[in-house]
Amino acid sequence: MVRSAIRISIAVSISGRVGAVHATPSATVSRLVVMATVRLFASAREAAGTGRDDVDGATVGDVLAAAEQRYGRRFSDVLATCRIWVNGDTATLDTEVGPHDEVAVLPPVSGG
Questions:
Q1: Which residues pair with 31 in a beta bridge?
Q2: Is residue 98 included in any domain, yes or no?
Q3: Is the confidence at residue 29, as pLDDT, over 70?
């Protein structure tokens, strides 16, 4: 998400009457930082070296790309086989995330 600021100038006369109102775009452009919590399980946890981390991104795709950069090729290889959930629901790369969301990376498991 990109935010642009607008600077508003209001001219007030000595009598207290409002004169001209001008709105001009400000040179300030900032990006809202969104840190989703990433939970890593089984082989994803082993590849990353942690079971939990806060990762910046506005979508699941952004979060996973940042995680791949942070954890490297071994994690990327494992991630290719994983299912991704956000707050307990299946997610796509376009799923938006916020600071209170949990992105779970679940590799396939076998049992017997």
A1: 2
A2: yes
A3: no
In this structure, are 6 and 49 located in the same domain?
no
> 34 falls in which pLDDT band (50, 70, 90)?
confident
Question: Are 58 and 102 within one domain?
Answer: yes
Non-local (6+) Cβ contacts of 84 within 8 A are 60, 64, 90, 91, 103, 104, 105, 106
Residue 111 lies in a domain: no
Number of domains forming the structure of the chain: 2
For 48, left (φ over 0), alpha (ψ -120 to 50), or beta? alpha
Helix/strand/coil percent split, the chain, to 5: 25, 45, 35
Inform me whether the pLDDT recorded for 73 exceeds 50.
Answer: yes
